[in-house]
Design brief:
Elements lengths: L4 E8 L3 H12 L5 E5 L4 E8 L2 E8 L7 H7 L2 E8 L3 H10 L10 E3 L3 E6 L1 H4 L4 E7 L4
Parallel strand pairs: 1-4, 5-8
Antiparallel strand pairs: 1-5, 2-3, 3-4, 6-7, 7-8
Length: 138
């Protein structure tokens, strides 16, 4: 199996502070790490729920990759990220199977990870799939 576990679920929200308040008040998820990503025109807030990370992502400008998605579809699940042992090998394996990739080459993600997105049309059955390789072993 390519995946070792679900790494995180990315939720698109329009207002990150409102979303943090919602998850805190309703579910008691109060330990949020805020990660500004101005180079990607987005703000991220991450909270651990067991082994899983919940990632709230909000666009800070129209240039955010998912700004149009949010406008068209509204807030909701944006992507599911699966952990892989070797992201380069995983991408090559998917490429060999004819799977369309958004990222041919991995790029840096939060928490010292390498990430790559797989196209939702033929790689995720309509779900945007993210591959995550953790570079530090703890």
């Amino acid at each position: 199996m390519l995946f070792s576990q679900v790494d995180h679920i990315g939720l698109a929200v329009s207002d990150i502070e409102q979303a943090i308040a919602h998850y805190s008040e309703i579910y008691g998820v109060t330990e949020w790490e805020r990660i500004p990503m101005p180079e990607r025109h987005m703000a991220v807030a991450a909270a651990r729920v067991g082994e899983l990370l919940i990632e709230l992502i909000a666009p800070t400008s129209e240039e955010a990759a998912f700004a149009k998605y949010l406008k068209d579809k509204g807030a909701g699940v944006h992507h599911i990220a699966y952990r892989v042992a070797d992201i380069h090998a995983s991408l090559n394996e998917l490429k060999d199977k004819g799977v369309r990739l958004i990222d041919e080459t991995p790029r840096p993600g939060i928490h010292n990870t390498l990430i790559a997105f797989v196209h939702p049309k033929n790689g995720g059955q309509g779900v945007l799939v993210e591959l995550v390789q953790h570079q530090d072993h703890h």
